[in-house]
Amino acid sequence: MNDIAIYTLTSELHDASTVKAETEQFLSSLGLTCQLCSTDFSDYGQHPLDLIFVRTGGTESIFRRLLPTISAQSPGRPIYLLASHKNNSLAASIEILSYLQLHGMRGEIIHGTSDYVCQRIQRLQQVNEAHARLKGMRLGIIGTPSDWLIASQADPTIVAERWGIELVELPIQEVQERFNTLSTSTNEEWDGICNRKGMPQLLSTPTTQVSNNIPDALRIYHALKGMVNDYRLNGLTLRCFDLLGTLHNTGCLALSLLNSEDIIASCEGDVPAMISMAIAQALTRQTGFQANPASIDPHTGEVWFAHCTIPFDMVKRFALDTHFESGIGVGIRGIMPNGPVTIFKTSTNEQRHYAAEGMLTDSPSLPNLCRTQQVIRLSHPDDATYFLTHPIGNHHIILAGHHKALLDEMMNA
After folding, report:
1. In the predicted model, is pLDDT for residue 65 greater than 70?
2. What is the DSSP letter of 23?
C-alpha cells in the first residue's frame, strides 16, 4: 500500500531511540509502505490516508494542542488513531477518542492483531482513495429529471460539499443539435463495435426494425460523447424519453456504450442514481446497472429488477430489442453471470443510503417488462421490505459481487 501518512505522538518521558526502534518493528509487522510525516502536522490531510500513531502514553495534551491544526486541515473527516500493544499506547488512544467524541468529532482506534490492523487500514485507504476520485468530478445533467421522478432531485450545493462533485446543467436540445450535425452512422460501425475485444456475445440477429434504428442510436452516442469531451464531463444523466419524440430513437445503446468506457451514464435524468453510480464506481472500480424493482416477494426476499439498458462490460451475452414502453429505438437485453450482487442507492439530500447483498439467480425475458431483467434473492429477506416502507426513489444500482461493508464504510466516512 502506498501514500499512507503516519503522524506520531510521543511523550518526552520515553527514550527516543527505543521508541524509534519499536516504531520500525511495529510498522514492519504490518507490512505497510508508509511515509513518516512531520510532528507539527503541517501537511495533515493532504494524503489519501492519514493515521496518527499514538506511540506512548502521556500524549493526550499534545494531541489536544494539535487538534485545531488537524481539524482545520481535514474538516469533518474522522481522525484515525493507530495504537500498539506497548507503552500505554492504547490507553492514551482511548482517552483521545473519548475527548473527540465529547466535542462532537468522529474518530476510531485501529488496534488488534497485525492482520486485523493491516486489513482495516487497507479498507480505510480504499475508501479515502474513492473520495479522492470523486473530488473534482464533473457530472452533466442533460435535460431536467423526467417528470415522474418526483423524489429524485439533488441540491448541487450539498453534492459539492459532501462529495466534491460539480453538477453541470446542459440543455437536452443540444443532443438533437449535435445529432443533426453528425454524419449518419452505419451498421458496419456497429459490427465493428461488436467485434471489439471484451464485447459480450451477441445472442441473435436483431429484427429489421431494430437493425434500422442502430445507426441513429449510434449517432446519439456520438452526440453525447462529444458533450462529454467538450464540457469535460466524467459522467452524465440523460432525460432520455425526450429523444423518443425529437429523434424517434432512444439513448439505451449510447448509455451502455458510455458506461462500458468508464463514463458514468444514467437514464431519465435521475441525478441521485447518477451519483450512486459514481460513488460505486469510484469505490469498486466497476460499472453499475441502473434498474427499478418490478416485483417483490417480502417473504423470500426475491426482487425482480428491470431496465432497457445495461453496461456491456457487465454482461456475458446480450440481444438488441426495441425500447419497452415505446416499442421503438434500440433497447438492450443483457445477461449477467449468476452469482453475488449488491444493490445500492444514496439519497443526495437526506444523507441516507441503502446497500444490500444477494444472489442473481435468473435473467428472464418477459414481454411486459423492460428488456434487461434480473431476479435477485436478497441475503436477508427483511432487506426487501425497504422498497415497500422507506425507499430512496425507484432506480437502484446493481453491482457484481458483494460490497455492502465497503459501501457502508464509504457512506459513513
Report:
1. yes
2. H
Beta partners for 82?
Answer: 53, 110
Q: Hey, how many other C-beta atoms are within 10 angstroms of the C-beta on 99?
A: 15
Q: What are phi and psi of 129, to 5 degrees?
A: -65, -35
Contacts 24+ apart (CB under 8 A), 106-114: 106/77, 106/78, 106/79, 107/78, 107/79, 107/80, 107/81, 108/78, 108/79, 108/80, 108/81, 109/81, 109/83, 110/51, 110/80, 110/81, 110/82, 110/83, 111/82, 111/83, 111/84, 114/29, 114/30, 114/31
Select the more confidently predicted residue: 192 or 150.
Answer: 192
Residue whose C-alpha cell is 453525447? 224
Quick: pLDDT tens for 261-303: 999 999 999 999 999 999 999 999 999 999 999 999 999 999 9
Q: What average pLDDT score do residues 145-166 get? A: 89
The secondary structure of residue 103, as a DSSP letter, is: T
Residue at grid coordinates 444514467: 266
Question: Cell numbers 445500492 label which residue?
Answer: 344
